[in-house]
Amino acid sequence: MAASIETSFSAESGLVEDIGGVTISMRGYYAFSYRRFLHAASPYTPDAIVEMGFLTNEAERRELVGDPGYWAYLVMRGLESFVATEDRARVEDFRPGS
Fold first, then answer.
1. What do you get for the CA distance between the two ends of the chain, in Å?
2. Mean pLDDT throughout 12-38?
3. Which of 1, 34, 52, 83 has its Cα between 20 and 30 A from that of 76?
4. Which residues contact 63 (CB under 8 A, 6 or more apart)?
5. DSSP-assigned states of every residue in 75-88
6. Positive or negative CA dihedral for 69, 70, 72, 73?
7. pLDDT (tens digit, 9 = 90+) per residue, 51-78?
């Protein structure tokens, strides 16, 4: 799912994923750590954190606040792409790590 959203963003906006910004600590984020926390998302539930910028950064704030519908559209387009490519009847498509 995250890859579909990233593809949507990069294709339309020209922005690329900040791969260097994802740390080991972020990969262990409690919402995704189902082995450590009872309230985490199920490993069978597709999920992603979408961080599009910082409101404390003036340029990014102008972009995000200036046209929020555009940014929401990019997320929605990525989600639609993900759903269209997954076969809900195939259990293998929704196993953790797939």
1. 10
2. 75
3. 34
4. 53, 71
5. HHHHHHHHHHH--T
6. positive
7. 888 889 898 899 889 999 999 999 999 9
- Distance, CA of 59 to CA of 16 (rounded, Å): 17
Q: Cα dihedral sign for 55, 39, 25, 12?
A: negative
Average pLDDT, the chain: 81
Q: Report DSSP letters for 21-83, one per residue.
A: G--HHHHT-GGG-TTT-TTSPPTTS---------TTSHHHHHHHHH-HHHHHHHHHHHHHHHH
Structure token pair of residue 40: 């985490």
Q: What is the token pair recorded at 64?
A: 């995000």
Place of tokens 């409101």: 55
